[in-house]
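re: ur question from earlier - yeah i can do the single chain one, its not a big deal. heres the input i used so u can compare w yours
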Amino acid sequence: MPAAIKERIAWEDRFRSPSLEQLRAPLNKQLQGAFDAAREQLLDLEGLSEGILWRGIPWRWTVAFSTSEERDCWAYLVPQPARPYLVLPVSIEVLSKLPVRRLSKFVREGILHAACVAGVYWPQWDIQTKGQVEDVMAVVAMKHAALQPQA
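and the output i got, formated as tokens:
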């Protein structure tokens, strides 16, 4: 008799499009709170909308935030069950406008250790607490402000 086949969690099952709730379900209560706080604050930014996209390994099913003007996604919220994280692609131009030295050590290290691909830095931060979300949202707000048309 064959061993029972373990069903994959929604986050890693490439062949089934999950709902947001299915992606949240494997997170423990604290991580769900941080995940929800990050999602809500991203959606509060003018012009951003969300979608759930398959991004392959290691991101798998990811909540992607984008604007109608940009071809690429603006931010990613990766609901990895053990440690969800937020990824914020930042161009060299925008990064040069950020006061990196005044940011918290947690945020600064995410930027300093980010991979750079084709002039875009890809910092990512584990978001395990609402405090960490608040720290990262400071950079998100700065990126959003830097990309707004100047009056």
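The two ends are 71 Å apart (CA to CA). not sure if urs matches, ping me
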